[in-house]
Predict the 3D structure of the following.
Amino acid sequence: MDPLTQGVLGASLPQAFTSRDNIVTAGILGFLAGMAPDLDVFIRSSEDSLLFLEYHRQFTHALIFIPFGGLMCALVLHGLIGKRRQLSFKTSLLFCTLGYATHAVLDACTTYGTMLFWPFSDVRIAWNTVSVIDPMVTVPVLTLMLFASVRKNPLLARLALVWVLVYMSLGWTNRNRAMAVGEELASSRGHAPVRLEAKPSFANILMWKVVYETEDRYYVDAVRTGLSSTIYAGDSVEKLDIPRDLPWLDMDSQQARDIERFRWFSNGYVARDPQNPYRVIDIRYSLLPNQVNALWSIELRPEATPTEHANYQTHRDARGEALAVLWQMMKGQGGSTTEQLLGGG
């Protein structure tokens, strides 16, 4: 998730299990350690723009790395903060390790994918229960963490942890409901999906992007969960077929290898951009959940040399307009009920 959320959750865990006297220091150390795993974003290359995709949420986010990450944070932060506040190194180490430990688990609740089991597996774990930015997580936890510090009351930090568990459970429930609607929708079209997933849209767990795969296409729809479900039928796109879509590509070239790296990052959900024949997109993410309008892609060049890399790109054009439409969808405007769409009414 975003750095602020990572920090405040990292602060809340050590605060929840310390004394009143140490609660402020526990919060500071946990806050900084809770953000530390994302320092992996600085692993980049000017020549290989996909390099950071391989290392972001990799070893620094692995469960096995938590003790090492906590120790590294303690070695830096104890002299700067802990020692000045009369903490033993052991206590600073405990606070830093607890803060560090929250990061990867929280990231795994999002849709991006986190290599929790590196180096034993490079599978990107994504439980798809919350957006990478969600104020309904951040604001309550931040508020409770601050009040816990001011009032020196560990109970408030424990309430922050309970809130996160409750919210993630609600996200899990809504995700499963959206998937069930997606399966009904696919069946109504005569499709038997090879796989189907539901992912929360931006900053909420009410609107879900349902993506399912058939033999030759991906289908994207939006489902609003609530007291009843609302469906926003969406787009579809052909799955990437390199011989058909990129017949000029040398399969021994670096660009071809970069497509496979991007395919791994995208969990296989890749297609040629309908608007750009030289662009391969990750269809899992878009600001509007019923669109194939990717937030990121790689762009290829027929004239590239065999050793040149594809170019990773992000796309966030017309964000304000898309967010306005998303807000209307969240209010249930313009969609179809399950009875109307699936029942043919």
